[in-house]
Design a protein that fits this description.
The protein is an all-alpha fold. It has 19 helices and no strands.
């Protein structure tokens, strides 16, 4: 009997190992390559340069596979967004970013590379689809590139009309993938994002989008598709969880969003952004003191050599200061905003937001000279000027709000 059980267990292990080694027919096969997975491990530790190096080698080994170039596009776009302080979700978890006047200056070589890679992938996929109208991988790869490009131009250029067109094109490609293969879970991400995004638009805008583009939206359907991509996708699983957390946060469903985000932080403990988002969500849920402790822990971990890669502490200091401000810890908030502004890799936009907030706290502390000095930092010529009007007002009349 014992021998039979041992033999049965052995056969099960062999079968499991064989199944794990088999290719997944519902994704681009290159996504399963061990070197590609290594590149994503580096990416999700925010080692963008390390990921870029790995993916560049992958593209050299697979020059005719559009997905290989998509990996590089993905890395270049998110590295730039990170360096512009645009991956702190407090910026776009709500609709305020739609009306901001922020000017994002992207280096010309970076923008040219992003445009060139996008066009390269789309051109390769167009040719593949022309040769085989049922090439589900080509549809996915083209939609993936257009979706990333849409995110870039919306967040960087605030080009909402062009971004909407690109996003719709990504959705159409992904819907075509799902028609050809309903189990192609990676394609659920783009459709899910569009479903939720369209449903979140104001009523009259949603009606116009429906009439002009012929697409509708449904929040719960969008969330369900993101959950499926998160559970079964290969190349979109982590991004789908990130989008899911953001959308749940947008709708004030903080416990659900926190559950998703804590899972990401446990899986990728050295991803600074995942850790930061746990603190952000804890703050938004209304547990400010816990959030302050979480921000402080992130800052403390950042002091450990090699714990985070390319850490941008201004995000943590600013989020912590906002939380302290809400609890009327004015002196601590002033210190936090100042720390954010003084970080050497802080974007000019966030730096001036921090100086403005620091000045407001100094006014509340009746430190008028210190407040004026902070407002003068905001009013320095050049760079971002979106906070200048508020700073001028505070120079004339001390800030008295909260």
């Amino acid at each position: 009997m014992r021998q039979v059980l041992v033999k049965a267990m052995f056969m099960l292990l062999v079968a499991a190992g064989t199944a794990a080694a088999q290719p997944n027919p519902h994704t681009v096969q290159l996504n399963l390559d061990p070197e590609v997975r290594q590149g994503f491990e580096r990416f999700y530790s925010l080692d963008f340069d390390g990921a870029y190096k790995v993916f560049t080698h992958v593209s050299q080994e697979h020059p005719n596979d559009p997905m290989a170039w998509n990996y590089i596009l993905f890395t270049v776009i998110f590295r730039e967004l990170y360096h512009q302080d645009l991956l702190d979700t407090t910026y776009y978890a709500r609709n305020s970013f739609l009306s901001t006047k922020r000017n994002v200056e992207v280096p010309a070589p970076t923008r040219e590379q992003i445009e060139g890679l996008t066009n390269k992938v789309v051109g390769m996929c167009d040719a593949a689809i022309k040769a085989n109208p049922n090439d589900k991988d080509a549809y996915f790869e083209r939609g993936y590139a257009k979706g990333m490009h849409a995110a870039f131009i919306v967040l960087v250029d605030h080009s909402f009309a062009q971004g909407a067109r690109q996003g719709l094109a990504a959705r159409n490609d992904s819907e075509q993938v799902l028609k050809l293969d309903p189990q192609y879970a990676d394609a659920d991400m783009a459709v899910g994002i569009q479903q939720f995004a369209v449903a979140s638009l104001p009523g009259w805008v949603r009606m116009i989008v429906g009439i002009m583009a012929g697409v509708g939206g449904n929040k719960e359907k969008g969330l369900a598709m993101l959950r499926n991509a998160a559970a079964h996708g290969v190349v979109t699983a982590v991004e789908s969880r990130t989008a899911l957390s953001l959308f749940l946060r947008h709708d004030g469903r903080y416990p659900e969003a926190l559950d998703v985000q804590r899972g990401l932080a446990r899986e990728f403990p050295h991803d600074y952004l995942f850790r930061l988002e746990v603190a952000n969500l804890t703050k938004d849920e209304g547990h400010g003191l816990e959030a302050i402790a979480a921000y402080k822990q992130v800052i403390a971990d950042a002091q450990k050599p090699g714990y985070f890669t390319d850490v941008r502490l201004q995000m943590a200091y600013f989020g912590m200061a906002d939380t302290q401000r809400g609890y009327n810890f004015i002196k601590e908030a002033a210190e936090g905003y100042t720390q954010a502004a003084q970080q050497p890799n802080c974007s000019d936009w966030l730096r001036k937001r921090a100086w403005l907030s620091a000045g407001e706290m100094q006014d509340l502390l009746h430190n008028r000279q210190a407040a004026i000095a902070d407002y003068q930092q905001v009013l320095k010529p050049g760079g971002d000027q979106s906070q200048a009007s508020a700073a001028k007002d505070h120079m004339e009349k001390p800030f008295t709000g909260k």
